[in-house]
DNA sequence: GTATTCTCAACTTAAAAAGTTGACAATATG
DNA sequence: CATATTGTCAACTTTTTAAGTTGAGAATAC
């Protein structure tokens, strides 16, 4: 599962993408529109700013804007940035590879191949959609198979 | 990421699958072979036993065995059982659907469609591999793209 | 009846996530 | 330059979840 913080970050970035080219957007406005605790958003936006993916401006009429065109930011980028990896297990991460704690040797791991496949397919999907894309919302019934 | 507990559960189940039809396997043996803290494994196996997916037998020469043929248990099943869902966000879960906390309305969520796609592709992969399958281990270099 | 093995709720500890505080730094404007 | 506005950031608190342990008990075999 994505953390709440990651989800907030995604929504904040969507908000900035939706107002791309319209000058700086204030934190308070994003917080309100996206239903994110303002003080917490502070932490998140500063982080994104340190990552270089948003620019900030202080003082009156300051705020935040994307440092990059929304066409150049994928959901995969955001998730990797915030949570470090798209993989289900540390040893299946491509960018943040790590040995799984208490595991047997990777060479004879029974699930690593599968986990790598999952991570690759996930990446394919998440890297295929950009902040500039407006995705059609899913109608409510589409998901009531349970 | 999968929790440590889920990973332990998977390995324990693999161990039982590998010894399917050979009578009950003792917890201590699984713990040792799979490098899982024995006392913690106690909790995990009891849980799996309550789920009805393993059978247990007490007393001398007791132990655990799969309650179902390993051909009828997929990795998807195990992960769903242990962590409740395969999805990245609560609202994209098919079996444990839930509203995402602090989110906007699902009807105009910008990522739900994508998240549902990810969950479906993940499920397709994870439900396509069974405990009876021996997967070829991935050679160490295959993953060194970083 | 005793040794063995699983059961399970209650507990502890540790770690991560979520969120807040408050002092400070940059900028705009009068 | 004074002041209001807005972002910065490290330190902190609180809450939640994960990880693991304890110990008394119940079933079974011999």
UniProtKB/TrEMBL annotation, chains A, B:
Keywords: DNA-binding
GO molecular function, one term: DNA binding
Key word DNA-binding present: yes
InterPro entries, sorted: TR_Rrf2-type_CS (IPR030489), Tscrpt_reg_Rrf2 (IPR000944), WH-like_DNA-bd_sf (IPR036388), WH_DNA-bd_sf (IPR036390)
GO CC annotations on file: cytosol
Domain of life: Bacteria
Keyword Acetylation: no
Listed NCBIfam families: rrf2_super
Name used for this protein in its record: Rrf2 family transcriptional regulator
Lineage: Bacteria, Pseudomonadati, Pseudomonadota, Alphaproteobacteria, Sphingomonadales
